[in-house]
Structures are given as C-alpha cells and as structure tokens.
Amino acid sequence: MSHYTLFLSNTRLIAFHIEKGQLLEHARFALDDEGAAAFSLFLDTWKEAIFSLLVDVVEEDFQLESIPHLGRSDRTALLARRLDQNYRTTPYRRAFVQTFAKSGEQDKVLMSALTLAAPVDAIVNALLAKKMVLQGIYSAALLAGEMLHRSGLGLTHYLLVSFTPGGGMRQTYLAADGLKFSRVSSLPEGSNLQDTERLAEVIVVEALRARQYLSTLRLLGREDKLQLAVLSPDGDCLPAIRARLASSGDAAQFVLSDVPLDLLARKLHLPQADSLLHILCSWLELHPPANHYGQGRHLIHATWRKRGILLRRAAYLGLFLACVWSGQAIWEAGEIQASIHQSLKKTGQIDERLRRFNLLLKQSQASDPAAMKGTVELYTREFLTWPDMEDQAQQVSNVLLDFPELILDELRWQSGRGPVDPANQAEAADASAPATIPVVMELKGRVEPFDLQYRQALASVERLSARLAGLPGVTVQPVTLPLNTSSKSGVEAKPLQQDSQRVDFFLRLSWEQKKHEN
User: Which of 181, 227, 350, 394, by CA, is between 20 and 30 Å from 482?
Assistant: First the structure.
C-alpha cells in the first residue's frame, strides 16, 4: 500500500512519496479553490494510499506551564481543561509532560496548538470525505525535536535554524528535556537565499532576538552559550555567520554547531537527504512516530484499518492453531488405530489357540480307542505344560517374610515355550514329549526406611537374592540395585535428594520347568 506525506506550509501543499529508496516530490497544490480541486482529483487517483499530514506554519503556538504533580486521571483532566482554556478555537492541540516532578512539586508541561484551523480543516475534511486513511497530523517543529533527541546529539541550549518552502525561517529551541519553543519568521522581502552574506546577517539578527527572548523566559542564563545550528538551503554558510558574529561583538554568546544530515539519516535508517524537510517526510513514511495533533474523528479510518489488520492476524493465527490441532488429532487417531490393530492381532492368536484346543478336546473320547492319540496330545502338549505359579509364589512369599525392611510394590510372572535345542531335535519331533516352558517372575520393590544408607540397603537386597537363588531350579538376575558396585557399571545422572526415604530394587527370577517324564 502506497504512503504519501502531505506537507502544508503557509503558501502551498506538497505531496511527497518514497520511490526506489529516494524521497520524491509527487505533486504540488496551491492553497486556493483551484488547488483544492486538483487535490481532490489527486485523492481519487490514490484511494488506497495512506497519508500523513506534516504542518509547518506560522500559526503554531507553544506555551510552557507548570502543573501540580497528580495522578494519571487527575492530570489528564487538568490538562484537558488547560487546553480548552488556552486553545478553545482549534481542535489541533496537545499537552505533553516533559518533566515529572516528585510529589508536592510541579510538573513541566509543553502545550502547543495550530491556532489557525481553517487550512488544516480543508485538507483533513477532503481526506475524510473520500474515506482516506490519515494516520496522523504532525508538527514539523515537534518532529524535528524528537528526531534530534533520538539522534543522540548534545542538545543543551540548542537553537536550530531551518528554512521552509515559501520564504520562511523557523527557529526551534531545544533543551535536554525537550523542545521549549519554536517560531517561524518571514524573511525580508526580496531576500535571496543564495546570498550567503545577506542570509548570515538575517540569521544573526534573529538569533540575537531569540537569545534575548530565552533570557526573558529564564530558559537561558547570561553565562550560558547558545548552540546555533543552521540548515541553510545553499549548503555551508557557517563561515559568513561566524564572521558576522565576530564583527557584531556577540561571538562569545554563541557556539556554532554543525548538523550532520547524513548522520541523522543513518541513525534513523532513512534515505540520504539534503534538507531537514526531506528527512522528516522520509521518517513519517518509513517509521511514523506517535501522532501529534490528530483527534479520534480525524483518524477514524486509520483506526478501522488497524483493527482490520488485527482481525486478519487473529484469523491467520486461528487457522494455524486449527491446522496444528488437526494434525495432532490425526496423529492420535493413527496411534489408536495401530493399537486397535495390535489388539485384534493378539485376539486372533488367542482365538486360533482356542480353536486348536477345542479340536483336540473333541478328539479325546475315551470310548473310542482311535481317539486316544488326540487325548494324549491334548494332555502332553496342553495340560502338562500349562504354567502353575502357585508353588513358586508361595516359596518367594516365605522368603520375603524374613525381610521386613523390603517392601514389594509389583510382582509379574510370565511363561512361554522355550526355543528348541538343535541337539534334541529328534526328541522335539516326538509329539508325545512336551516342550520345556520357562517361567519368569519379576519383583519390584523398595527399601524403606532408607535414610541414605546405600550399603545397608544393598546388603539387604543381596541377602534376598541369595535366599531366592537357593530355591530349587531358580536363577536370580539383579536388574536394579540400590548401589551398583560392578566394574562394568557407569555413573547414572540421578539427582540425590536429601529428603529421600526410599530406594528401589528390581530382581528377575526364572525357573526352567523339567520335561514331563512318561
């Protein structure tokens, strides 16, 4: 979307636009009926553009006031009343607290306004009539002060002299805490800005008047030197100003200061410019600061535009979150489907075993000698090999009775057909010989109370392992011990908790059932 800066002076209206990294003058309009018609046609051409209005006119007033240090709501109400008293005839006004004092002291406030509202109204009303986006109404003096403060230049008693289109010269006084006053004076009739000698004479005369005014306001002491910075249209006129001050005998009251426009442009990340006006316009287009004089009704279309942008971003964010949620739901559905498939597979295996079991059961009819083969197979392959953990569980339970400090949290057991030994393939081929079924029991528990006695806990678990290993046909494999002292063990990154009252152990017991002997 295109962005235009409308610069309003006392004589003309100029539209600036940045194109290919350079600030260009796009159009110029006179402040009369013909210029208003041309401006209306210009707006019809750029209906989708964003506009900023930069005002540099003589009718801009600045007042310094002191108010009691109040809370935010009370201060806002007081400033609104002061603005209404001082600038009742114009809506283009503002109050800015430059210095917040401590409780019981006075805050320093700068009040300013565009006292002649008609020229600004004409432009603002033309924009509102066509529903154009106006993002702010700015003061050239206030904007220059904000820019110089951001640049980091020393602004103690700083008088900036610049020239406006149409033959005006603006003097802006800046202190450490902000702008104090600014005024535009008309150059003498017939003045040639290219004549450095004549221009230096006018600048020195106006600078002496400004210094006297600042002394009257007690903003500048007698011993204070005023930094004089001049942005002349022809380039460097400092030598002529220095010579004029020396001839007048007032050189001791001033310090000539250079304004590095290139440095200002680089610090603000702006295109190179040859005048202060171009820097201000570029700043408004690329990095617009806070609005100065625009009221809510003036910026209504910009407000709706910002809300629309926020709604679009919220919609994009909602769409993104919906996509993330959908992806997570699809992934969880895939996990559930895989779990269901695995359960169906296990169910099928169980059904197949039951089917074979029922088939053998039907064949085992004792009254029929021919069915004895099925009976024998059912007995040897199913009944004799069916696991029974009651004896083993009783044996383990009797051992655990002698270890009250060991608490058993979990007991698991499982059995299955072991692998066939190649040396006994002939025997395994015999259907009457049941396969060996290994039985495994897992004991998980804890030593309690613990009191950080690792060696004592380890000794208890090792005594339990030795007792269990003494059971008939039992092999004990320690999986987790309170303290691993083997040479192959490593250091595990487990934090030691000083208030720990337990330590865990994990033992795996295995029985190799003997084959049934006929």
Answer: 394
